[in-house]
Amino acid sequence: MGSAKNTSTGSRKERIEELRRAERARERRNRFLVIAASTVAVAGLVAGGVAIARSQSDDGGKDTASDSKQASGHFVTGADGVKSWKGTLARNHVSKTVAYAMEPPVGGDHNQVWMNCNGDVYPKAVNNMNAVHSLEHGAVWVTYNSKASEADVKALAAKVRKTPYTLMSPVEDQKDPIMLSAWGKQRTVTGADDKNVDAFLSEFVQGKQTPEPGAACTNGLTQ
C-alpha cells in the first residue's frame, strides 16, 4: 500500500513539474513575441486589428450572452460522486454577462480573458465569465462560501498554490461550503483533508475534459 501511494505521489509531482516546465516555455515564447512585435509596431497594430476582426468573425460576432441554449442540460452524478454536465456547453467569447445554469459554472460562453490559474488564490470573488475561460484551459477551480471553516480554506489555499492549472476564490451563492469545478465536471468535498480533493485534481487538472489542453494559465486577469 505504501509503495503504491509513493508511486502515485511521485507521478503527480512529475506531472506538476511537467506542467510548470510547459508554462515556463510558453512564457518565454510570449516574451519573444512581444519583443519581436515591438520592432514592427505599426505593422503589429494593423495585424492586431485584422486578428480581432477574425476573432469576432470566428465567434459568430456574438456580443450577447444569456442564451438559454449555451448551457442546456443537467448534471449526472457518477459512482465516485463527481457530477458530469450532460448537455450543451457553448464556448463563444462574449462581453456581456452570461446567466449560467449552475453555480459555480462549469462551462458555457465566457469572456475572452481568463483568470490567471497558475496556483492563484483570490481572496475576493472573481467574475464567473473569466473563471470559466480558465476551466476551458484545463484548470480546476476550488470555491468556498462562508460556511467553510477557516482552517479548511487555509489548507486548500496552500494546496492550490502548489498546483499549476488551479485557482481558488469565494463563491457565496454556491450550494455547499467547498466545491471543485472543471470544464463540465463538479463535486462537493467535506474539507481540505477529504481524499476526493486530490483525486479530483489528479483527474481533471489538464484532464481529458479540457477543451483547450495546454493553453496558458498566466498572462490573464488578476485581482
Automatic annotation (TrEMBL):
Residues 1-23, 55-75 are annotated as: Disordered. This is DUF3105 domain-containing protein. Residues 11-23, 56-66 have a biased composition (Basic and acidic residues). The chain crosses the membrane at residues 32-53. Signal peptide: none annotated. Keywords: Membrane, Transmembrane, Transmembrane helix. Residues 1-10 have a biased composition (Polar residues).
